[in-house]
Design goal:
This protein is mostly helical and 179 residues long. The protein contains eight helices and no strands. The protein starts with 9 loop residues before the first helix and ends in an 8-residue tail after the last helix.
């Protein structure tokens, strides 16, 4: 029996969909003048992408992004608004596909460099696209919200290094002792 190309991707696809849908719903609720609740959850999408890229390769990570994108946009139209769903989908694709590309170029270096740099670059692109499409022309202080959101994404990119390292330790076999 032939195995589906998505068989081992169900967990990252489910995680990605959950993170993006929750974030699209939560972005509608400000915490204060510089943050929405979505700023707290969305950065975990980069952690899902980086772990998938490291453990299963860039092609499989792109599958997770594309399937997660489709499911998240469909659900976000229902749970958020069509404008937020469109803005999110556009920003998500640009940021996540950039994340995979940068991660792949840097993966041979120090274990922390690829996830930190790729998440940072993906976050900058994602934030610029999302907030300009979702909130430009509204009465929300979207530039301030975008800067607050980016600050949280950058902080969480650093903090996500610990779970990234832990996931690698659990998934990869320990090196054999010589002798």
């Amino acid at each position: 029996m032939r195995k589906s190309p998505f068989a081992s991707l169900w967990a990252p696809i489910a995680a990605m969909t959950l993170v993006v849908v929750a974030s699209n719903w939560l972005v509608q609720y400000p915490i204060n003048d510089v943050l929405t609740w979505g700023a707290i959850t969305y950065p975990f999408s980069f952690l899902v992408t980086d772990i998938t890229t490291r453990l299963q390769g860039p092609d499989r990570a792109r599958r997770v992004v594309w399937v997660g994108f489709a499911l998240a946009v469909l659900l976000s139209v229902w749970l958020a608004t069509p404008r937020i769903a469109l803005a999110s989908g556009t920003a998500f694709l640009a940021g996540q596909l950039l994340d995979i590309r940068v991660f792949q170029r840097l993966r041979a270096g120090s274990w922390w460099r690829a996830p930190l740099v790729s998440s940072t670059m993906g976050s900058v692109v994602d934030t610029a696209i999302f907030f300009s499409l979702a909130f430009a022309g509204t009465d929300l202080p979207w530039v301030t919200l975008a800067l607050g959101d980016l600050g949280v994404k950058l902080l969480l990119a650093v903090l996500a290094l610990a779970p990234f390292r832990a996931a690698l330790a659990l998934a990869l076999p320990a090196p054999r002792a010589a002798g």
